[in-house]
Amino acid sequence: MTATPDLGTPQLASPDLLRSTFRRHAAGVAVITARGTAGPVGFTATSLTSVSAEPPLVSFGIGTGASSWPAIAEADHVGVHILGEHQSELAATFARSGADRFGAPTAWREGPEGVPVLDDVLAWLVCRIVGRVPAGDHRIVLAEVVLGDPSGAGRPLLYHQGRFNGLRD
Do the record's keywords include Oxidoreductase (predicted)? Predict the structure, then answer.
């Protein structure tokens, strides 16, 4: 019989268990934007994933109760922005409920397909939505890359333990 390592006190599955576990998982920070009927919408996402290189596909999750969901549910295209460590305030603005996300000091312009494109990010993509997959209280959005610019300078912004952080050497 093999010895069992000390597992601490396991918890049954719950939203709190999932949140507590993923606070320990460092994730890159992105902002997803779209054109909505009442103006631009956007939100901070740590669920961005590269899905496929051929064709180039990405995915991200969004809660169906999120203020941006109605626009994302109807949009043909979205903007995906990889934030730099100098953009923790921008990330916080797009994460905050009720914030004026596109007002000053947010710098942006209308990009291809009418998608709002944020200035001074490490990289941005415009993607065509190809699927919205139900997943609990969220939807996993699959989007095919149409075009983008990966040439921004700097280091990535990370999210860990409930805070935005930069990389340490």
Answer: yes
Q: Provide the residue ranges of all domains of the chain, joining segments of one domain with +.
A: 28-161
- More reliable by pLDDT, 157 or 22: 157
Tell me the CATH number of domain 28-161, given options 2.40.50.100, 3.10.150.10, 2.20.25.10, 2.30.110.10: 2.30.110.10
Model pLDDT for residues 137-158, shown as the tens digit of each residue: 999 999 999 999 999 999 999 9
Q: Cis link prior to 70 (omega < 30° from 0)?
A: no
Q: How far does CA 54 lie from the centroid of its chain? A: 22
- The structure tokens listed for 119 are 């200035």
CA–centroid distance for 160 within its chain = 14
Confidence of residue 3 (pLDDT cuts 50, 70, 90): low
Structure tokens at 1: 């019989």
Q: C-alpha angle with apex 79: 78 to 80, nearest 5 degrees? A: 120
Q: Is the dihedral of CA 20, 25, 30, 36 positive or negative?
A: negative
